[in-house]
Records
---
Amino acid sequence: MKRSFSRRGFIATSALGTGGLLAARTINLDPYPLTFGKQKVSPSDRIRFGIIGIGMQGSGLLAGAVSLPGAECVAAADLYDGRHTLAKEITGNPGLYTTRKYKELLDRKDIDCLIAAVPDHWHKQVVVDACDAGKDIYCEKPMSHSIADGFQMVDAAKRNNRIVQIGSQRVSSNLCKKAREMYTAGAIGDIENVELSLGRNDPTGAWEYPPPTDLSPATLDWDTWLNDAPKIPFNSERFARWRCWKEYGTGVAGDLMVHLISGMLFTLGWNEHPRSATALGGIFRWKDGRNMPDLHLVLFDYHGVPVFVRLGLGTEAPEIARFMGPKGIIDAGEFNLRHAPQAGIDLAPSYYDSGFPGKMRQEYEAKWYAEHAPKLGQEPINQEVNYSGHDWDDMRPHILNFFEAVKSRKPVVEDAVFGNNAAIACHMANESYFRGKTVYWDEATNNIKS
């Protein structure tokens, strides 16, 4: 009888060779965020917050925050007047205090804490000012616009004993917690490598947002919005699409990669920056004047563990965080988590025996089965488990974690040190791209070197 020998055939038949069974099951995780609205909070336990920045992300944060029990927004600041109206609409409070000057919120005694969702080049100033004013603050990701900014923010939080929560929300999701629990329990063994990937394929996903129709120097304080960026004439596209330019944002690294990196750090129990980063990429599709790449591929070295990241704005691709070890794989998607265990042993005679003479092969296989085949009724089951849950980027529990920390003074899940380490990875990825070479972290100077 003719026999065909290959590694692919060996893998496909190995489970059957030992009587192994394949199985899969799905587990629904408890929808934790859906219980928020059922809680009642006494007036003395309420938390009053102010918000700085009510744009695309800020409006979602504001809506999520006011939906939590006991949370009340008492003031909102934005440099664009149209968002003053939006804040009043979201809170349902036409009398909500609004202003262009965020520092007015820092002086108010009736504000317990702040939420900030401003462009990246404003993060450092707002966080440092808030901490120096004695205010705890939730700041959107990425934490910083530069390496130096991040360390100034960490210092301000420590110096003033302030709670700072950085807004990579997935670290508060049930899916991320489950991934961490499985890895800590040894589900895949010691991590060997990580793959992180996300792709978009539409103008909105590539930040080509439509500017507000009434945007003008009369409705927006343009000069203040520029902050420390080069002074240029009023430009509505720069305001709406700031992520496209390094003067204000951090590109796909700061918008997308930081979520993937934060989730990875939390899952693996790491709180560190990479040792090196090697990046490739370019502007392949969105040739609209931007100077940040729309395709960014990065290979990081985390204490010897390779971490590969692929980010693109020209091809739709599912969000995946893949953790690989000798005992299997954990795949984390946007709404699901998959654990595929692997035995890591031969489950059938080695396909190398295809090079043996017939009699030798028969003797080898007979001996192998005699020593390794399981007893009847004791066949191994390779059970793949799928977990479905709430959104991987879970905003409301992340804000709730911050509010509870403000009241209890207990640590948050993503403090300034954690946020800074995640941001450093993004800065290293960008620096490698712009320098066209591998970059390394210099512990002596807390900076990047080539």
---
Amino acid sequence: MSAQTKTEKMYATAPPGRLFFTVAMPGMISMFAMSIYSLIEGIFIGQTLGESAFAAINIAMPLVMITFALADLVGVGASAPISIALGRGDRETANNVFSASVLLIFLVSVSMGAIMFFAAEPLARLMGADAELLSTSVRYLRTVALCSPLAPIFFAMDNYLRISGYVKTSMAINILCNLLTLALLTLFLLVFKMDVVGSALATSISMCLAAVVALLPFIFKQALLEFRRPKFSLSMLRQIAACGSPVFLSNVSGRVTSILMNISLMTLGARAFGEGGGQTAVAIYAVLMYSSDLAWPLLYGIADSLSPALGYNWGAKNFRRVKSISASAFFGTAVVGLLSTALLFFFPDRIAAWFVKAEDTRLLTEATRAIRLFCTAYLFRWLAVTTQSLLSAIGKPLAAMLVSVGTAFVFPILLLGALWPLGLDGIWLNFAFVNLAAAVLSIILVLRLLREMRPSDLERPKKSDV
């Protein structure tokens, strides 16, 4: 039996529980490796470079993530129509969308890399960098920009490997990428005594090499998807943009929110701690983001790994199976969300100490307090993450966009003003209330989707988006 037939049969007939462990567990392991890498990176930066470097990278990171978000727009946007086309048995369309998307990602990444390199200084100022943090932020941005033509492709190839049934290969590449990054971090920061440039180089070099390795099965025609001379059409570009927009808007609006948060933190930090307090507040925010990596990649790993199977069965009109696979995804992310909340709530001091030097007592104390307030977000976050992934996978971009933009931008900005009188505590609690609102919205959309998949409708194609 060919690899192509095995992959399609797995998506179409494997019991949901078995499919979860076959597809989602490797995805979780991949994302767990990313979590470990991110935590260790934070520990390296916090313990070797200190509060100032921590704050500078947090200032620069939104722009870096916007660059990757553009690549994700194409990669995720192409994944849904590819999976749906495969479910319909239309491999020609699937291969064309795949080939066109890889070329688009490369062109977008080259353009964004050039902008980030040459406009690094004004962009860093725009993101809230003061005179003390500006130089460090600019050097970090320009280092990442040098590798941007190739590194962002890695994110999309991860999706395409899973669609092609290379689930364990995707997991192995992710693990090796993170191990290489840790090795390079050790070399650059501890041996060569480099500053934030060493951190940027370690991540970028590893992602570039991982992208090359991930391309090999497609270059040598060993995967379900194959490269073709791409034929672009307006309808294909619209479909990619529509399906990728929820994730893209979530990423971009989240980065815009981070910029506004950084600006707010500089103001509220100075008010709470006096001179230099803005830098401390931004550093606390960075600790929260690294602490979040204990759980966020695991949630995303489960939801995203099952997307190809959901898209395939939606394209095949097997809606009962869509329900069963979705239930597995919601259960898995719920368990991760509850365990993450407990871990962050009961051990905030130990987690904060990973990223903060023992002598930085103010930063350590305030970060511990912030983690305990922040962690309640994971009681609800799993609902929005899984719902957005489900809606994107089955070609419901408008509904997915409501969840993504609401979670990443609309709710945080509204609550930023509402919670402003609470000072810094209002910033830390913002995450919990945002995810509670997103959970309510997600429940409404899922109930509406379930009504659309009533038993009497199982054999009828859907006429409209949610």
---
Amino acid sequence: MRKLLIRAGTLISASETIQADLLVEGEKIAAVGLNLPANGAEVIDADGKLVMPGGIDPHTHFDLPMFGTVSSDDHYTGHKAAAFGGTTTVMDFVPQDLPTLKENLDAWHAKADPKAAIDFGFHMNITRFDAQTASEIPGLVEHGVTTLKVFTAYNGRLRLSDGEIFQVLRIAKQHGMLTMLHAENGDVIEVLTAQALAEGHTTPEWHAHTRPAWGAVEATLRAAALAGQAEAPLYIVHMNAAGEVDQLEYARQRGLPVMGETCPAYLFFTIDHLRRPDGAKWICSPPMRTVADNNRLWQGLAAGTLQVIGTDHCPFFFNGEQPIIYEGQPVAIPGKELGRPPFVAHDDFTKIPNGLPGVGDRLPILWTYGVRAGKITPNQFVALTSTTAAKIFGLYPRKGSLLPGADADLVIWDAERRLTYGLAHAHHRTDYNLFEGWELVGFPEKVLLRGNLIVDGERWLGRPGQGRFLRRQPGAPVL
């Protein structure tokens, strides 16, 4: 059995920081302690470096059809970008496009299994609810899928009624599953979008104007109330507004089993970025808000009101007409230019594919602008980007920990490395990076997946198909 000794690193978990060696045997962490004997193990000297569990991103969209195109990262390119950023587990959402839930899962496995470069799990979207769907949901558990996602927006496409969401929550509770929810007000969005277009407001900032923060705030409280009435756990995805944090805090103080996630983009960007000439780069749903919203989200993370930082990674090319070179091959995929002439008569924010790159940015950006900036501690960083997600989504302690017996998903972090970040380091298969030119201090040096070195500096040692599907068990805790 292959052995690897990571010697003299500073181990950072969600709960403690210690100086120790870490021994890997095969795919597992075998021991943690001082002065562990090598006994023939390969040795990595981590003196002066940090050792952390690999990141877990519970919110990604790879190879996702949208607006006549597809998100530009597939389950290989996106996984590779994740790994370069220190993330070793991702969780993707399966659309409910085919007649049965099992057929949808099979279709997503066909996309992901041969390409997966890191370990992965699935969430199942429930965007059509009827007696058949209700009867099929419990069967997802035997396929290792224990999470469902519902929407209060996207009328006529993805949205369920409150009564349908309530029924999904109750079924999920009965079978030890977790419901995830996209919180916006679809009715208000429909009215405001039609009005904006009729008045000739078509530029990117109107994407935000037509999806007001109050809709997200109201939908968050409404969703928490539905969860309370169903006595079922709820996880609200990509929270982006200060009022949402307030409502989450209100619900949790009253004992409701509601948890929240935010994403890096909502911590750093605002509607002003949509007003730029390249504002389409920042179009996603829900949209960017204000500096006050950024600050309240940081407060929610520091206080523990928000539990997880995912990314909602769903990248598109800014100009898909111009190929980029990825792994030596030209790649051109239609992207955000679909909302600009000549593809439409005039700018039309409703035609711009919704989504941002981010799966490779999350850890490096949050280390410099979260930990080094004093907004969160190193232990909170590990909790928010790895350990808490592992617990909520039924993967702990196999993932997200530095405990003996856990998968050896490890990041050796150089906390003193300085670099100017952007496309050259992000590895996403797209033509822009939201954090282009940002100065970073701290970056992954080596990344291991189940004991196998897959990133060594700038070298990629991984391959398609090495990632494994993670079958999750029901009954994960509410944190």
---
Amino acid sequence: MTYAVTLTREALEDLRRLEDFLVEAALQYGDLELPQRAMAEIESQLRILRTNPFTCRVAADRPYERELVIPFGGSGYVALFEVVSDHEVVVTALRHQREDDYH
């Protein structure tokens, strides 16, 4: 079974915010390819949701709301998503693992 993966407006805003942070970090640390590598890894890991969304950990007590852990460097990112039908997964939020306001 294949799922269509869509991102909410809020999730897209999260991606932009994360990319802005990565650009600042790249300039600060002189690693100008950091944003490209991180965004490529996030995109790559989100592809897992096309075929295996139920392999991700359950978020809270709702079996269809799940979290995809995206390792990157010493920490990584977490994508909150919901399986909304037999054919669709909706990503609702993306955060760095060290952020406090995830849910």
